[in-house]
Amino acid sequence: MTLGEKIISLRKQRGLSQEELAITLGVSRQAVSKWETEDATPDTDKVIALADYFDVTTDWLLRDIEPPAEQADGGAAVPALSDMLRSAPMLLDLTTGGCVFGAALLLFDWWQQTYYCIPTILGLLIQIGMCALFLGLCSSIGSQDAAKGLALRARFWRRNIFPLALMPCMWAAWMILWLAAQRFAVSVLLQFPLALALYLFVCLRIQLRTRGGKG
């Protein structure tokens, strides 16, 4: 098969028109038409974009070189990068909601002082689970595209540091005051302003550190 025939085949398998594929790739419909009729050859960046979009390799598109076969005996296929990137925004919203809900449970327990601290335990488990879920996705994406993985990780921390840092900063303030009370006379009323100062410092530092996509 020629490159043009492969593009036609892949496009029809997805049920796309030339116009729809052109919009996806950021080119004109005439450009896609010329690729398919072999009147023109896509630039290197467009070949890479085609390969990413259709979950094939550039070697297969250009030289008919098939990718290594997955292990037939139970070898798990690696999810396609494009599929993981499509699911990332929805998963980010889900994990953000989970982190906020976990923080709400922690605050409820701190305010009500419930027996056995069940809301605190549940809140921490939810927040840990949300972090593991999204950061696991970032690691999977990073194994195929390091820049996208780091960008998503930075986006997660910029959005979720506010609910995640809340209770650790309160605990840290309590520990600092407890240690200080061993040698000095300190008031428990200092816990809130100290926790607030720690919270603002941590949130601001994470916001600045992750600005520009640094994880």
In short:
The protein has 215 residues and is an all-alpha fold.
Give me some keywords for this one.
elongated; 73% helix; mainly alpha; 215 residues; 9 helices; single chain
- Our Rg estimate from Cα atoms comes to 25 Å
> What's the helical proportion of residues?
over 70%
Mean pLDDT: 86
Number of helices: 9
**What is the terminal-to-terminal distance?**
43 Å
Q: How many E strands?
A: 0
Largest sheet: none
Order of helices and strands: HHHHHHHHH
What features would you describe in this structure?
This protein is an all-alpha fold. The protein contains 9 helices and no strands. The chain has helices at 3-13, 18-25, 29-36, 44-54, 58-63, 81-112, 118-144, 146-181, 191-209. Helix 6 (81-112) packs parallel to helix 8 and helix 7 (118-144) packs antiparallel against helix 8. The longest helix has 36 residues, at 146-181. Mean pLDDT is 86; it is low at 69-77.
Write the layout of secondary structure elements.
Elements: H1 3-13, H2 18-25, H3 29-36, H4 44-54, H5 58-63, H6 81-112, H7 118-144, H8 146-181, H9 191-209
